Amino acid sequence: MASNVFEEDEEVIASINIVPFVDIVLVLLIIFMITSSAISRASIRVDLPTAASAGSAVASTLNIVLTAEGDIFLNGKPTTHQALGTYVARASWKDKDLQAVISADTSINYGRVIKIIDVVKSNGVKSFALNIEREI
Which of 3, 23, 37, 43 has the fewest CB atoms in 10 Å of its CB? Predict the structure, then answer.
């Protein structure tokens, strides 16, 4: 009779449960998507001017950067004056409350910053800000 205890039909579990693996992969994907935009913006090196009265960060949909080398970046991607104007015109047509934040290196000529402001304003953006750092 004791031998009947081990003769029951026990099936071996031969399948792999991948649900926890999929959950982990999805969480990692979300983390990667969130941090990738911050990494691309942080890669552009700009020495911003400082001021004691620097305000808080402004929510924007356009981030324009002028580097010390004279390069122009729009939302982390290199661009030209003409392409910037075209993109801003299209974007402002879609969103009437479009805002722009212009970050320029301290070594950039003031006239170049004014040209970028002119391109932004002449293509329909009503609100813009100049990015600065707070003095310590």
Answer: 3
